[in-house]
Write a structure and sequence with these properties.
The chain is mainly β. The protein is built from no helices and eleven strands. The protein has strands at residues 2-6, 9-12, 17-24, 33-38, 45-50, 57-59, 67-72, 77-82, 91-97, 101-102, 106-111.
Length: 112
């Protein structure tokens, strides 16, 4: 199984980014998928998760109302739409597939 994130970059406070995660492997369509992030000097933290059918989503409190997780099982893709970004959202964002597989991360920098 391979997990590859993309879509990170530099954005001003209040801006938006959409992160993408492609998962190769036969288990994608039955795996829950999660996004985590790790800010400089901090531990990795869970951000959002989506069930394998996409009907259940969960978010950490700090991103509720600003981030939206979604998936397209026909394309083996998971997305994280991030709006109203804040400097404290600056981190490397990781996609986790099925609690086991991780990508290499994509960096998000939000300038104030």
């Amino acid at each position: 199984v391979q997990v590859v994130e993309s879509g990170g970059g530099l954005v001003q406070s209040g801006g938006s980014l959409r992160l993408s995660c492609v998962v190769s492997g036969s288990t994608f369509r039955t795996d829950d998928i999660a996004w985590y992030r790790q800010a400089p000097g901090k531990e990795r933290e869970w951000v959002a998760a989506i069930s394998w059918r996409g009907e259940i989503t969960h978010y950490t409190d700090s991103v509720k109302g600003r981030f939206t997780i979604s998936r397209d099982n026909s394309q083996n893709m998971v997305y994280l739409q991030m709006n109203s970004l804040k400097p404290e959202d600056t981190a490397v964002y990781y996609c986790q597939a099925g609690t086991t597989y991780w990508g290499q991360g994509t960096e998000v920098i939000v300038s104030s």
